[in-house]
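Can't paste images in this forum, so I'm doing it all in text. The chain is below; anyone willing to post the predicted structure tokens underneath?
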Amino acid sequence: MRRTVSLTTVATLATAALALAAPVGQAAQATSHGVTVAHACAAPAKGQMACKALQVTGGTPKSAHAETDLTAAAAPSGYGPASLQAAYNLPSATGGSGQTVAIVDAYDDPNAEADLAVYRSQYGLSACTTANGCFKKVDQNGGTKYPRGDSGWAEEISLDLDMVSAACPNCKILLVEASSASMTNLGTAVNTAVKLGAKFVSNSYGGSESSSDSTYDSSYFNHPGVAITVSSGDNGYGTEYPAASPYVTAVGGTSLSSASNSRGWTDSVWSGAGSGCSKYSSKPSWQKDTGCALRTVADVSAVADPNTGVAVYDSYRSATGWMVFGGTSASSPLIAATYALGGAPSAGSYPASFPYAHTSALYDVTSGSNGSCGGSYLCTGTTGYDGPSGLGVPNGTAAFTG
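Text version of the structure:
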């Protein structure tokens, strides 16, 4: 069952956070300045992960009909490749060739390749298919015994594939489908992605932290030389795993709007982005903020606000084709693809450290909040590092290279 909620743009941050966390069947009141959204995936059972995709189901996003290079008569709503590449100064026309970005999700999307073809054709991107060697889908063990289909996770898969395509059209894409949404199965899928050669692995899911996280860290996420990105969460201030792992790049979320500044765009903290202090995970050596004794979430960020959402095509089961999505499920694959545009990490390196060595190569996010933390940087956009947006959003690829 989907959880239908309302998300505000700028007003009443606490209300927005409560709306995103609302249990099944309880929706917060919509505002005239927001959009109504639904969680693609059901609330997770204990020990399970939930995907972080939010579908716009009512209202008109600010990003509606944002593209200027559409080839079809009926333009999809939401930001497409041209907008995202321009906003983050990405060298998408020339970068990424020879790199493989892996997408790890639970359950099967039987329409994944066909839906990806529609998205890429709409925006004039080159075909990415099994036949031409650009696209590959495997189960969590690297075979073709795909798990059962799930419409919610299929929407997540479509969002992930489309965002990698938008940021890095020249990248190859490996989709690894876990048998279930347990951390064990998803972690096995991460290991399979790395085993199959992916140097960039995006994970758009999360769940509660636990005392088992250190075991998961060593079993699934400690892969030197591989950039692993994870969504920070969609419930506002508070931490989730595996975003809290010290071995990953935790990706927060912003609201992205066009602006009259020299950049042409501006980002502010999205009220739903996850952030805060981990309860269990150690602080990596490259993270120097003093407000958390342990790991602080997040590291960097990108667009995640459904009200400034992205265009996605999905046709599995009840899906309607073109839709607008947000959530940190959008920002994680965007950042994974940005790493890929920067080239393969060196052997033995920890790519999560790269942005901390190149802070000037990021657009700082200095406004907005995702909850109540006494006004500290842990939940408030501010100059330099802050929890919801980390060090900022991409300004090219320099911050994502070793």
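Residues 96 and 234 are 29 Å apart (CA to CA). The first helix runs from residue 13 to 20.
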